[in-house]
Amino acid sequence: MTEPILAAPAFRRFDEYLGCWAYEPERFLAQWQMIRGVDMTRHMAAPQPDRPAGYATLPARGGKSIAVLKATGTLMKQASSFGGTSTIQLRRDVRQAAADPNVSAILLAIDSPGGTTAGTADLAADVRAARKAKPVWAHIDDLGASAAYWVASQADMIFANTSTALVGSIGTLLTVYDMSASAEREGIKTLVFKTGPLKGAGVPGSVITDEQRAHFQKIVDDGQSAFDAAVRSGRGMTAAELAAVRTGGVFGAAEALSLKLIDGVRSLDKTIEALANAK
């Protein structure tokens, strides 16, 4: 049997932790602090936990089913070695559910602070494409932020489970440390031999130049532009409506509803019941 085109890697990739993130800031900081205390050599060498592929189904009208696809924890192309969801695997599940004649609708069950921008735009595009085949709804269970909201925004409808659910965090971040002052205090001078002004940017002990700062900011801005376009298109927002929610912060469900980020607040059972009868 040939390997499917959309197959999540079976090995851990440390490089996926680098680059731009669309992640709720408070939880990003907490996770980063945790990761800094881990022996990454031992962690990356540990066996991968089994994460079964596929999706659950629930009965719908006409003898068909609702496909329930979970997007929980950190979203990365490969599921994070600290847990979470593989956007590659989720893309594969979305496509299979969209093509399955026995599936009448798709429910994205989301409880996530976000993840890497890498892989998110592809997943969001597959969610939007699935809408052409059948209804696709998203249900946020307490948290749907950043990359997770980016994906949710491409569904036909979005619901949050309770008034205390947190939604939004529309923003992108990239962290680079300028440790040159610390190195200078220690009497260390970092020499970076390179072939261009951007090569080696961020090497510990080197100065982050204005040109390099502009380069990193452009990476963030370009990622945010894709995020903005997806949310504005998916939610049918005007430029002013998008500007009102593009703060990087989360909103409680009631405020999220008033800001057009979601379509209602109701339990998962009620959402499933309505989707089972959707046309």
Q: Which helices and strands occur, and which strands form pairs?
A:
Blueprint: E1 21-23, H1 25-36, H2 40-45, E2 56-59, E3 65-76, E4 85-86, H3 87-99, E5 103-116, H4 120-130, E6 136-145, H5 147-152, E7 157-160, E8 166-168, H6 180-185, H7 210-235, H8 239-245, E9 250-252, H9 253-258, E10 264-265, H10 268-276
Order of helices and strands: EHHEEEHEHEHEEHHHEHEH
The CATH architecture term of the largest domain is Alpha-Beta Complex
In the CATH scheme, the class of the largest domain would be Alpha Beta
Total of helices: 10
Per the principal axes of the C-alpha atoms, what is the gross shape?
globular
**Strands, total number:** 10
Straight-line N-to-C gap: 36 Å
What is the subunit organization of this protein? single chain
